[in-house]
Amino acid sequence: YQHFKMQDFSEIRKTSHDKETSYIHLNHYQGPSLVPSSSLVFRFPFGKQSDCEDIHNKLEELRKKSSAEIMKGSDHLDHDCIVFRKEINDNSEVMQHESCKDCGNFFKGKLQTGINCLTCNDLFHKECFASNKDDDYGTAEEKFDDPEDLLITPTDSREDFYLGEMDQKNANKKLKPKRRGTFIVRFSKDRFVISKKPHKNDPIRKEYDHLPVSTVTLTGEKWIYLEKGFAFKNIDDLIKHHRKSHKLYFPINSPDSELTERNSMTEEIQTIAPERRQTNNIPQINVEEPNNSKDEFMHGDISKEDAEERLTDKAEGTFLVRHNNGTYKLSMVLPNSRKFKHSMIHHTEGKFSLTNQKKFDSLRDLVDNYMNVSPKNKLFLGKPLADPNSEKIFKNRTDD
What we know:
Strand content: 15-25%
Number of strands: 20
Helix content: 10-25%
Order of helices and strands: EEEEEHEEEHEHEEEEEEHEHEEEEHH
Structural class: alpha+beta
Largest sheet: 5 strands, mixed
């Protein structure tokens, strides 16, 4: 494989040589001359123009990020730091994954990236390095219980979920009379397998799902894992770690797994925002459809200049949310001034956040939270500015 760095490309250009074919050129120049060996061209056939546009925007966003200034949090304001990158060798049996000094979690992926703080002599995730530990929003008093946690039935021992040697057909039979969210751990073909009846919160849209547990030898010891970067010595610890992420709510031998008249009424109810399904097509940028009648702060695909024009002469703290190029952005009137602030809203793994520390299931939850924090909090939001276009639509509907 040949590896490229986004910051090495001099330009990213989209062209169309005819009506049927589109191209994205990632060019590297030395002086006025193009260097073919350090350049790339992506070709998109007829019918893929929208994919070409999406990927072009995404590449531009990645290039901006690669050249962006490193954001320093409260613990590293005067520290020297550089970007950290490390490629993992697939053939090695030695644990080479580095972990973040702040949160303790591993850097994921074959190409690990983060921040190397030269002053601390430690490695950090970019989000952890940029976090502000002394802000009001990081205090324990502001944390809220997650409704999803109420679904997770505690386990006393492995016997609550482990059924020993069992094939897939018999696992399905065991799960059939149970409620959604019930799971089994079984042993089949020399490895553990997690079988579950997916809950409505689960992005899996199958009647049953079976997850094989992989084994890897690291420094002479055997470890098991569902996702690379998170390995465990035994199945108990693995299940404990993944219960929320994989919607393993009710162990098979727990009374809560029984489908009763009372809990059958909640079988079709989702308690968290649904994830978008994954496809095998060219990656698309997922954009949440705004609900104009509910999320009055959503202003759709408008530019920074349009946002400032709408916010002009509005009271301090007035804000709106917009999205363009697949990214959500918060625009607001700064306190004690006529200036404006524009912040990116992070959207990863179905969660929304402003700081990458506190995450929310929806934009509505994020906005409601920061409208109710102390006005002294730098993330405090005042009154939302309704989208004038959505107000017109709403009035037209009520006139009918």
